[in-house]
Automatic annotation (TrEMBL):
Biased amino acid composition, Basic and acidic residues: 537-549
Keywords, ordered alphabetically: Repeat, TPR repeat
Chain positions covered by the region annotation Disordered: 1-22, 525-549
The name this protein goes by in its record: Tetratricopeptide repeat protein
Length: 549
């Protein structure tokens, strides 16, 4: 799911401490001293300066101090740029820093100076693939295969480029060769699984990689492919297992931990999900993390009472988590839930720069409940500290609508919508104001703008399909919902919206499939009807003029 851009000011950003212990710090200090000595040693030859800097860089890299090591590598190549082994060492360090663009350049420099360097040739082929340079990746792989027709990495690059270009017959031929040479090659199995999935052979795709995962093995790419297959079948147990494995590998990564919280929530483990969310927000406070949490809750389609009960298991929840939960409720138009979540802390708290977001959200909840006087006062105070605070502007818009001040409401609603094109509640508010003003064309356009800004936002989908049904365009609403679930097969919200639309049109097969997917994603047993032909994801892409089969 795509997440809207950060839209509030003053976001707090959590920063990690510099890694390494005392010995590592001593190495860094030594490196800095030596680096300074190198720069000051004007009597040294370029070769000597390069050798000393490279030696220190390698020492730092061996201690895991890749940042300081990079500085020394830069000093070395500034002194001597004609040493292939120096460029290779620099490139390996850049890979450790996840600087793949820089690593590509360093490997290219090494290759330019030594055309027989197989490590450099292999690296630029793989980095070209990783960075989307498909033509370069294919060319480099072809060079390698001309020297060694059975080179496994080159075969994988060549087959992957063909697969992405839609040349499926050629891909199948290369996969067969890979599987013959190394049947247990993990990357080969993943590619074979992706190919089988593209052909619509989902059982085969799963059987190629699932045993590796069940055995406790398999890298991130294998898990990503298996997750895609589990999502298509609504395999909640498998999705939870993958989320747990990923979270164990990256215990400090908020996105990975949020994915685990989602699966815990879907499996009914509300207390564990609440604890995971609480830890995430304590470790990474701020607007960006709240937006991610709102998107996750929207995807799971958490009801207000469930949300309140879940946070009640914490004593108390982190204020950032409570605010995120309230913002999700506000996005759904559930003002009562939002007010109940915020009242314990926001009701009597003094407004300041650090509480403007909370007070703005509380003001919007009050305005939605019709308590306009209190809402107006709190919105005004919040806007004194942040004149662009989103929920405070939305609260003021509702207050203005209640007072029939259409011009004022339209002014504020336009400001909110302009802050972020993919903030669906802002578009819905603008649509509401336009409807009151009698401009249904612009009202409808605002909702189309929201779904076009983020086609994977279930809140925008719900807003749009509701409008389309009201306009007598139920078939269009079904089309939008169908497309959403094809792109987001593990979205409970998407299937819930589609289920409601299927029932309205009395489409029994569609209703049965949506109902089954909702149950399965919640970990319940339910027979899954066959996927309709027009929804199978075996689309063909022959953009490179490849073979069609």
């Amino acid at each position: 799911m795509m997440v809207r851009q950060q839209r509030r000011r003053g976001a707090r950003i959590a920063t990690s401490r510099h890694p390494g212990g005392g010995s590592a710090r001593r190495i860094v200090m030594t490196a800095l001293a030596v680096g300074g000595a190198i720069l000051l040693a004007g009597c040294q030859s370029p070769a000597e300066r390069a050798a000393e800097a490279m030696a220190m860089a390698q020492q730092l890299a061996s201690a895991g101090q890749y940042g300081p090591a990079q500085q020394q590598f830069d000093i070395a190549v500034a002194a001597r740029d004609d040493l292939p082994e120096l460029w290779m060492a620099r490139a390996r360090n850049q890979v450790a820093l996840n600087d793949y663009a820089g690593a590509f350049g360093s490997f290219r420099n090494a290759l330019d100076q030594d055309r027989t360097n197989r490590e450099a040739l292999d690296a630029v082929a793989q980095l070209s693939l990783a960075t989307g340079r498909l033509d370069d990746a294919r060319d480099y792989a072809t060079q390698i295969l001309s020297l060694d027709p059975n080179n496994m990495n080159a075969l994988l690059v060549d087959a992957t480029v063909a697969f992405r270009r839609g040349r499926l017959d050629y891909t199948e031929k290369q996969i067969a060769k890979i599987r013959t040479l190394e049947p247990d090659n993990e990357a080969g199995r993943v590619l074979a699984s992706q190919f089988a999935q593209r052909r619509g052979r989902l059982a085969e795709a799963q059987s190629l990689i699932e045993p590796i995962f069940i055995a406790g093995e398999g890298g991130r790419e294998l898990r990503r492919q298996l997750q895609s297959l589990y999502e298509r079948s609504g395999n909640a147990r498998g999705l939870l297992a993958i989320a747990q494995r990923n979270a164990a590998e990256q215990p400090r990564d908020p996105a990975t931990q949020l994915a685990l919280a989602k699966q815990l929530l879907l499996s009914g483990q509300d207390r564990a999900a609440a604890q995971a969310l609480d830890q995430i927000h304590r470790a990474a406070p701020g607007d960006a993390q709240r937006d991610l949490t709102v998107a996750m809750l929207a995807d799971v389609d958490v009801a207000g009472p469930t949300l309140i009960a879940m946070l009640a298991t914490l004593s108390p929840p982190d204020p950032e988590l409570a605010l995120a939960a309230a913002q999700y409720a506000l996005a759904r138009g559930d003002y009562a839930t939002a007010e109940r979540l915020l009242a314990p802390t926001a009701r009597d708290r003094q407004v300041g720069p650090d509480t403007a977001d909370e007070q703005g959200a509380y003001a919007l909840a009050l305005a939605g409940l019709g308590r306009t006087d209190d809402a107006a006062g709190r919105a005004k105070t919040a806007l004194q500290f942040d004149d662009g605070q989103t929920e405070a502007l939305m609260a003021r818009t509702l207050v203005e609508l209640a007072a029939r001040n259409i011009d004022g409401a339209l002014r504020d609603a336009r400001v909110v919508a302009a802050q972020s094109a993919d903030y669906a509640p802002g578009s819905a508010l603008l649509s509401r104001v336009f409807n009151v003003a009698g401009d249904k064309l612009l009202a409808d356009r605002a909702l189309f703008d929201a779904i076009n800004a983020d086609r994977n936002d279930p809140i925008a989908l719900r807003q749009l399909t509701t409008m389309l049904v009201q306009r007598g365009r139920g078939d269009d609403a079904i089309d939008y919902a169908r497309g959403f679930t094809v792109r987001n097969p593990a979205s409970v919200a998407g299937w819930s919206i589609r289920q409601q639309l299927c029932r309205q049109t009395r489409d029994a097969n569609c209703t049965a499939r949506a109902t089954a997917m909702i149950a399965r994603l919640h970990g319940q047993s339910a027979a899954l009807p066959a996927t309709p032909e027009d929804e199978q994801l075996a689309e063909r892409d022959y953009s490179d003029g490849g073979d069609a089969k």
